[in-house]
Amino acid sequence: MVKYASKLSRESIIDIEGIVSKPDMAIAGASQQVDVQVRKLYCISRAAVLPIEIENAARSEKPNEDGQNTRLNNRVLDLRTAANLGIFRIQSQVGTIFRQFLLSEGFVEIHTPKLIAGSSEGGASVFKLDYVKGQPACLAQSPQLHKQMSICADFGRVFEVGSVFRAENSDTHRHLCEFTGLDIEMEIEWSYCEVMDIVNSLFVNMFDYLNKNCEKELEAVRRQYPFEPLKYLPETLRLTFAEGVQMLKDAGVEVDPMGDLDTKKERKLGQIVLEKYGTEFYILHRYPLAVRPFYTMPCDDNPEYSNSFDVFIRGEEIISGAQRIHVPELLVERASARGIEVETISTYIDSFRYGAPPHGGFGVGLERVVMLFCGLNNIHKTSLFPRDPDRLAP
Ligand code: ATP
Ligand code: AMO
After folding, report:
1. Which domains does the chain have, with CATH numbers?
2. Helices assigned H by DSSP within 182-327
3. Residue limits of the Aminoacyl-transfer RNA synthetases class-II family profile domain (predicted)?
């Protein structure tokens, strides 16, 4: 039996029969919990020679020791490490908390189509494909249009957890070509602040829950990828875009007050906010209208700004949200101004013609939330089977 066992390859699955006892601590290491005197041994599933060493995958990335690409090529084995299993258990909790919290707040879960006639967000990052009978179609870049249409259908409050497709053309540490979108849309009574209130209670609740209930998983991730716990406040900090621009200017950074912030400036602002307010989770709102999607509602008091917001963890965006335009004429005007072919979204625009309530919502990238909560440096680590410009398998 010993000879047979010594020939078994690593990661083979075996059944054994034997006598279990407490180990002699003087002989066994402190980590050994049990001793088994094996009487019978059966091989249930024999593993072939491993293409990567799981011990290497379980260490921090070291050059020449099964780098990230090799590990992703062999993702099933790579996922067997404690850190990776921890990451996806945490991810599962994030999705569960998102669902449970919204259901308790009266939101209805919906499932919108992923095959649509035109682009849902505009821009170039659209996967185009041939639909049946030769019709052109796109993969949805977000459930944006249909979640708003569900509000026009009188659901009041809706949410969706689903795949989102973006034909991103370059590799970055935080972009995927397919990711999981956590989306909400809701009627609003007074202002888009009601949507930011949901962001606040949902995420403070989520972070509290993860810290309290995922200790083991967080520890497994931390052992391989050391990180500091996320600093956040019981009431999420809200700054206006103009305040953010001023803080950057005061720190000597050149900023266009009516432009968007690039990744570097977002990170810098994150550092300034942490030093000044002691939080790594905050909301930046009232963005210039010109840098937001066509469906974003301009501010009443100054149409150069918009009722919109982004939310950041450790200086990187995890959420975009806004009040939407519910007036069809204004929607047509804003879509045309952005070069969108209005015919491709005519059914969306028509749904605002028969009495549409003021409404707003937001979209969250699930992989980004987990990446940034765990202080990880790359979104591939939080996507089970990542899709990027160079990766369609496994
Ligand atoms: P979203 O798509 O929701 O806006 P985002 O994080 O991609 O999320 P953007 O406003 O598109 O935010 O981009 C912010 C910055 O991120 C850009 O100024 C640019 O520096 C960088 N960036 C965005 N997309 C890419 C990309 N595909 N490749 C490289 N850099 C990108
Ligand atoms: P936006 O385009 O900002 O907004 O996307 C929402 C959130 O999705 C995540 N995200 C991504 N994650 C991984 N890879 C990508 N390529 C990628 N692109 C975006 C980010 C981002 O904050 N319809 C609006 C949302 C709304 O207003 O309701 C939208 O899609 O975390």
Report:
1. 1-49 (2.40.50.140), 82-382 (3.30.930.10)
2. 193-213, 215-224, 241-250, 263-277
3. 88-386
